[in-house]
Amino acid sequence: MNKPNIAIMTSGGDVPGLNAAIRAAVRTAAYYQYKIVGIEKGYEGLIDDAFIPLHSGSVSNIINKGGTFLQSSRSERFKDEKYRKVAYQNLKKNNIEHLILIGGDGSMKGAQVLASESGINVIGIPKTIDNDISGTDFSIGFDTATNIAMEAIDRIRDTATSHHRLFFVEVMGRNAGYIALEVGIATGAEGIIIPETHRDLQLLYENIEHKKNWKNSSYIVVVAEGDEIGGAYHLEKTIQQKYPDIYTGVSILGHIQRGGSPSCRDRTLATKLGIAAVEAIQSEKRNVMAGIIHEKIQYTPLEQIANRSLDINENTIKILKILSK
Ligand code: ADP
Description:
- The chain is an alpha/beta fold.
- The chain folds into two domains: 5-141 and 262-304, 3-Layer(aba) Sandwich (Rossmann fold), CATH 3.40.50.450; 143-258, Phosphofructokinase domain (Rossmann fold, 3-Layer(aba) Sandwich).
- The protein has ten helices and eleven strands.
- The strands form two sheets. A seven-stranded mixed β-sheet has the order 3-2-1-4-5-10-11, sandwiched between helices. Strands 7-8-6-9 form a four-stranded parallel β-sheet, with helices on both faces.
- Helix 1 runs parallel beside helix 9 and helix 5 crosses helix 6 (178-186).
- The longest helix is centred in the middle third of the chain and has 21 residues, at 142-162.
- It is elongated and about 75 Å long.
- The N and C termini lie far apart (67 Å).
- The relative contact order is 0.17.
- Residues 11-13, 43, 74-75, 78-79, 103-107, 109-110, 113, 128 line the site of adenosine-5'-diphosphate.
């Protein structure tokens, strides 16, 4: 008996590790004897009928590449029912019964709409450098982004130390502080400013007072882009007013955190989730997202997938206090 056809696409912002997930899904589909096709440019390609055949050879030598060889997009048209109907006709025309969607929480919302309106089974794989998606402990891209930011901050630390300066380094993360907290701990930052706490500026002041007279002291303050106080430039002004004798600088890391070769952890996470997505189809699961919770593959219904923010507890605050003094 012929098995139903699978399509795979990447949607939303690119992250390192997407290619590793596509590769694993394509090869697992071949292993279980499914035919699999790629859809280029996410929901845009779905509307424009940009389907391409894939086989094991199509995904050779991509595991180490950043970005996505299927390309990605944000699609305003897919929010319009008129274009969604075209997308569903294209899925029918190409005999697709299952869609593997690699995306963030926005793309998963689109997937729910697609599944309920078209009857196509959608299996999600979570990707976002921000790590702010529920249903998994880690999303594809987070580990690479934090490693890139860590390396960049280590370099900035050299300048900060040589010139006895305070640097504000702004990292990505949308409205969540996952990247800032992780990177702040890993670089020994004197301040970590994240949206989930409102005591971080006070902790920074205490730290500056504590280190002010140390020889060769430097300060690195990691700022999450979504912090409620404002960005790194705003914070710099605040500190300049309070401590006019301290030389300050600002560095916004921006998109370098999203590109480049994926880390070992992102490659293995993406590979596990790519395999899990096809195995969900094989075991007849419907409209779920594959994630890893407590080191185990777990499937969460798409309708339960949402944006999440970092759970800050007293223990985290304590860690920050201990390490900064
Ligand atoms: P991410 O998946 O990285 O969070 P976005 O939030 O930009 O990225 O979402 C990607 C795309 O998902 C959007 O451009 C849109 O096409 C689609 N999408 C998001 N929410 C919906 C929705 N409620 N209905 C239909 N499509 C949606």
